[in-house]
Amino acid sequence: MPQPPTIPAALILVPLLFFFFFTGPVFAWRPWPNQTLNKTESIFGGSKKYEGSSDLIQLKYHMGPILTNNITIYPIWYGSWKNSQKRIIREFLSSISAVDSKPPSVAGWWKTVQLYTDQTGANISRHVHIGAEKNDRLYSHGKSLTRLSVQSVIKSAVTSTTRPLPINPKSGVYLLLTSEEVYVQDFCNNVCGFHYFTFPSIVGYTLPYAWVGNSAKLCPGVCAYPFAAPAYIPGLKAVKSPNSDVGVDGMISVIAHEIAEVSTNPLVNAWYAGEDPVFPVEIADLCEGIYGTGGGGSYTGQMFNGEDGATYNMNGIRRRFLVQWVWNHLVNYCTGPNALDQ
C-alpha cells in the first residue's frame, strides 16, 4: 500500500500558529478603574458598565456547547502556595454550590450563570465541585510562562506518572493557579487571567481550562484592586481584604470571572456578544468592576463593610468574598445577589 504523502512540518506549524495567535485565550481584563478603554468598552461604549438596562448589548448564543453536566474543577497549584491560601480558594469554589450559605451568597451569584442554556434548553449545571488536584511546587516549566507553555503545564498534570488528573473534556475545568513568583505572558498588562481550551497537538485532548495568577508581588494595584491601590491614581486608598490575603482575595473575583465564562463559552463558540469570535465579549466582561448596586464607570457599586473593616459583597460557606457581578441576558443588565433592588 502506498504511504500517504509527507506533509512538511512548516505547513503543519503555520496553521497552528495562525490559530493560536489570532484566536488566543479569552482574557479577564481587571480591575477597575482602568487606565484605558478595554476591548468591551471599545465595542459597546461606556454605558454598558452601568448595572442598569442597556439596549446596546446583544449577547447571543452561537450554538456551541456549554457545561450542563455537573462541573468538576481540577486545581493545578503551580509554584509555592501556603495551605492558608489554598483553603481560601477551595472554600470559594465549594461555595458555588453551597445553597445554604448566608445570603447574599456565592451560590446566589451562580444562579445568574445558571440561566444560560444550550440549544436543547439545558441550563448550566448548579453543581460545581472540586475534583482531583495537582501540585507543581518545583516550577516544572519555569517561572515565566507563555500561553503555549500554560498548556504544557496542563499536559504535565494530566499525563503525570503519579496521580495524573482525570481526562474530563465534557464537564471538567482545569484551573491553573500560578503563585506570586510566576509571570505569565501579558500578566499585569491589564490581564489577570484568561480561559480557553487545550490543543490536542500539545495536550492530546481538547480540555476547557482557565489560568489566574497571584499578583501580590508583581502588580497588586492592577489585579487585586480594590484591596491594593493602582499607582496611576494618586490618593486612592485600598480597602481591607476579607480573608487577610491581598493577592488571593484579589484572585477570587478573577477566578469567578473565568469560571462563569468557561462554563457559558468553553470552546469560544457559545455565549458571547459581538460578531467576531476572535474577540468575544462574554458574560463577565460586560460587568467588569461592578460589585454592587449603582456600579459602573470607576464606581464599584455598593458593598458591605464588616465589623472588622473588611470589604466584601457575598458570603461563602464560612468566609466572605468580593466577587464581580455577571450579565443577566434575560433582563439585559448586570446582576448579583447583593443587589438592593431585588
From TrEMBL:
Protein name: Protein EXORDIUM-like 3
Signal peptide (residue range): 1-28
Protein's cellular compartments: Secreted, Extracellular space, Apoplast
Any single GO CC term annotated in Swiss-Prot or TrEMBL for this entry: apoplast
Coiled-coil features, chain-numbered ranges: none
Family: Belongs to the EXORDIUM family.
Primary localization class, coarse: secreted
Organism: Fraxinus pennsylvanica
Key words, A-Z: Apoplast, Secreted, Signal
Pfam families: Phi_1
